[in-house]
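Need a sequence for this fold. Nothing fancy.
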């Protein structure tokens, strides 16, 4: 089985996060993942709170929108958390939701160009390098972190389309694939990533567990139907087979474990279970942790 994670959805008020993080850790998950969605809770603050409330679980921030992050200050924030909680931080960057980036006046002319420049600069800074770059979006002149982390965290990129996946393979340590992700889509995505060095694949998947498979499917059917309507590479990879069973981790515990194994066989190093709404607690998913 791959590593297993749980998403604490951002709809929760931030004051509830410490207790929720402890619930995820107590349930036995390997990873806890947070989202930085507009206009809920700030991702860095939330990640720091989750790390401080727990003792050993890895905490991922997937993702921070690059249009609202300065490379030097993003590296400073990541370095501080990595030094406070060595080996437990999994930071990720992405384009950000286009409509939200327009809403706040931050959409760049080239989302892809910004992503590549910023991730490359952040990784170099975290490695302790002195960085000078005069890019289209990132401009640094002799910048070096005074407190780089001894245990440098991997930097992820959360993307889903062909050119962005290829960029992740060039500049990131890992890729986050959003829900819904099928085995077919994973195999296609890895071909686009084409990484020439170690590269970790983290896969989000909507999850619903119930001894009655039809009841489990019903909880996820509206989410899947909306995503199928929107289309895109995740749906195109499956074609006519784009249904709840193929696009989610769903059904009895045995069915869910089989779906997770299929994602691992297709290349997933970590499968992160996404509850359909914020009311679902981590304990509802512990059945999949059994061998």
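Here you go.
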């Amino acid at each position: 089985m791959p590593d297993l994670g749980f998403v604490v959805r951002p709809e929760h008020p931030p004051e509830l996060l410490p207790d929720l993080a402890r619930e995820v850790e107590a349930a036995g998950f390997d990873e806890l993942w947070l989202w930085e969605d507009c206009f809920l809770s700030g991702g860095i603050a939330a990640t720091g709170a989750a790390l401080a409330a727990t003792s050993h679980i890895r905490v991922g921030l997937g993702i921070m929108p690059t249009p609202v992050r300065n490379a030097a200050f993003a590296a400073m924030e990541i370095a501080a958390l990595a030094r406070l909680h060595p080996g437990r931080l999994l930071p990720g960057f992405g384009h950000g939701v286009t409509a939200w980036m327009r809403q706040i006046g931050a959409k760049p002319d080239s989302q892809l160009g910004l992503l590549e420049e910023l991730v490359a600069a952040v990784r170099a800074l975290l490695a302790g390098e002195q960085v000078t770059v005069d890019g289209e979006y990132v401009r640094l002149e002799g910048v070096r972190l005074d407190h780089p982390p001894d245990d440098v965290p991997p930097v992820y990129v959360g993307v889903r389309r062909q050119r962005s996946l290829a960029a992740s393979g060039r500049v990131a340590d890992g890729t986050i694939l959003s829900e819904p992700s099928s085995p077919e889509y994973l195999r296609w995505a890895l071909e686009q990533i084409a990484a020439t060095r170690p590269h970790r694949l983290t896969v989000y998947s909507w999850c619903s567990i119930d001894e009655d498979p039809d009841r489990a499917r019903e909880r996820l059917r509206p989410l899947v139907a909306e995503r199928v309507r929107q289309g895109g590479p995740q749906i195109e990879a499956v074609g006519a087979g784009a249904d709840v069973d193929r696009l989610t981790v769903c059904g009895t515990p045995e069915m869910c474990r089989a779906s997770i194994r299929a994602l691992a066989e297709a290349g997933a190093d970590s499968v992160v279970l996404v509850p359909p709404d914020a009311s679902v607690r981590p304990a509802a998913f512990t059945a999949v942790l059994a061998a």
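For context: Residues 14 and 41 are 7 Å apart (CA to CA).
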